[in-house]
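Internal QA ticket QA-208
Title: Verify multi-chain structure generation after dependency bump
Assignee: T.L.

Test input:
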Amino acid sequence: MNDTPAADRQAFYDAIAPHNLAPLWENLHHLVTRAPNSPALPAHWDYDGVVRPRLMESGGLITAREAERRVLILENPGLRGQAAVTRSLFAGLQMILPGEVAPAHRHTQSALRFIIEGHGAYTAVEGERALMEPGDFIITPSWTWHDHGNETDTAMVWLDGLDIPIVRLFDASFAEPANAESQSVARPEGDSLARFGANMLPVDWRPERPSSPVFAYPYGRSREALAAMARNGAPDPCHGHKLRYVNPATGASPMPTIGAFLQLLPGGFATAPYRATDGTVFAVVEGTGETIVGETTFRWKPRDIFVVPAWHRHTHRAAGDAVLFSFSDRPVQQALGLWREDRG
Ligand code: GTQ
Ligand code: FE2
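Actual output:
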């Protein structure tokens, strides 16, 4: 049978196709690869030079109300048209101008916000407003009501990270608009952080959902923790000084589908080569430096965004002290027993 003409095989494939049958043997090694082989590509978005001017331009084209959310998708060049920055995650930059409202809704997709610029516009989650400042990390867990509003006199921009491709994979998307454009304020600002963010929990509290009861993680606290770590110990060779955001009630990630991290790279420090199966989106908070991903070098500065696809070996080098925020699907992979890393 080894010398069956290729044409005979093709004739067989053509004959079985109408019966919804196909040969595995033509595809096996593309399906079950020896190692991850992501179609996603490394990519870098220059915020001040490219993205910010285009975002501002979009502000003249459409209102937040009409757009529902005025977001420029960070489209991975290897995944065009798929609204994906990695195969499992969506990223976008959202802008809300003075006086605008992005109306209340909820959906099964989980979202994180990482604040890029502006001061004091709000995101409301389940009736609690969080006033946003650069570097703050905010979550809107699956099926929680959320709306955004800007009562300040400057534009507010943040990075959105959502699990849209994961929810699409499972065909599990539900969404609905709220009756009112903005949620009425049910609890004062800072309430969830006071109750759940002081290394204590309300005495009889039981979790209602798998996500963190803290909605807003202010930058000042996280930055202070990194500064103390850097004063008091040596950096990890692959990560510098790196913390992960947690659900304080469980120690798990803030939301089940997205992990988030903040790391300090001391000035002059270069990380050892590292790769992991979670493709990761990075946002530069402080400092300048470069990241080498395979053959590609990204030179970054504050407010830039870049993505390192799954299993791409990379190193970071900071010129002066630098702080990077990042997010990935790591908790999903860990829950499924799939996550792997390779240090060095
Ligand atoms: O702010 O609620 O980037 O629902 C995509 C979907 C943002 C949001 C996005 C959303 C939102
Ligand atoms: Fe939303």
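Spot checks passed. The chain has a mean pLDDT of 97.
Status: verified.
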